[in-house]
Amino acid sequence: MRKFVSPDVYSYTPIIDGLCKCRRVEEALGLFEEMEREGVKPGVITYNAIMDGFCKEMEREGVKPGVITYNAIMDGFCKKGMVDKAFELKVKMGRDGLKGSIVTYGILINGLVKLDRFGDVGVVLEEMKGKGIVANEFVYNSLIDGHCRMGRFEEALRLRDEMLSKGLRPNSVTCNVIARGYCKAGEMSQAEILLQEMLTERIEVNAGLFSLVIVWLVKEEKRLDSAVRLFKEMLFRNLRPQDSILTMMVEELCKNGKHQDAIDVWDRMLEKGFGVSTITSNTLIHGLCESGNMKKAVGLLKMMLEKGVTLDKITYNTLILGSCKEKQIERGLLLREEMVKKGIKPDICTYNTLMRGLCDLGRMEEAAALWNELKKEDLKPDLYTFSTIIDGYCKALEERGFETRPLHF
């Protein structure tokens, strides 16, 4: 259809309706699928046409739609937010002599909860009670989720206790819903308590909940040991922390002098086969260099190379800076050579750092050689470059006895 015009729901719906009335349901369904592929959202009339077409086709074939069929269509309506249409279908079920099952009521309750129609939920629950239909885990989870989203935690917990009193064990869905509700409301202490209970009871915890609690422990509570323990629990369950959370943990551990813990976190990720981002690795190297742990920083670089971790300019520039701060200029120069061999081109930051290191040691000839080299590499000296070289020459002249070579500005 798009070949000739730009169709919308008003273009598709009459054709679908016409095809259904002409008993060409398969063609109507094909057009319905085309709507979704083209990003045209079906309307209520569109769904009605398809539904009526299928029901009439089934009747013509002598096949009566059963509860499962009705449930499937009702579920589709509820997921589209068309709960009233789902209730109309429930009425039709009754006229056809079919009784709704716990699945039927679960679908309707879930649809109502998503629209925050808790008054109607109460009516449905009363109807269930009158028909002797007992709420299952799905119904309770829907209700708990709805109350948590609205910040009604007391009611959510009451429903959880009610589940227990009826012999229904709260599952992973129930607990994760309540815990995430706490997180959303800023009740992080309660979320942590519930998370610990879930771990003790061996209830599955999703990655999102782990992440929320870890961020809170690191950023707000500064309880790094607890955060690392939860991180290990995630890995034990084969859950991968997001790169941003991993980087944050490594950064905070380094800031608090827990460099070995930061290295262990980084190493455990690789052991699990999850891989580590370059940003996380650079953060760890930066933390080690800042604290003067150059031996560990260089050792980490070797591990990165052995394990195929991606390196970049920041990786090498950080290590070169750390080496120069420790007066280990030879190591800095070797790192620059290795950088070039890896196909990573040194930038003005690389040259500035090495020139500063050489000037601080009074090695002006080598500093001048780097100056001339950077110009050959078409790199533009900045204010720091000029101040570094001028300062170096001034110090050399003061100390006397240093031969200097002319610079070409």
TrEMBL record:
UniProt superkingdom: Eukaryota
Transmembrane annotation, as ranges: none
SUPFAM superfamilies xrefs: TPR-like
Keywords for this protein: Repeat
Segments annotated as PPR repeats: 8-42, 66-100, 101-135, 136-170, 171-205, 206-241, 242-276, 277-311, 312-346, 347-381
Record InterPro entries: PPR_rpt, TPR-like_helical_dom_sf
PROSITE patterns (UniProt xref): PPR
Similarity comment: Belongs to the PPR family. P subfamily.
Name of the protein in its database record: Pentacotripeptide-repeat region of PRORP domain-containing protein
Organism: Asparagus officinalis (Garden asparagus)
Native organism taxonomy: Eukaryota, Viridiplantae, Streptophyta, Embryophyta, Tracheophyta
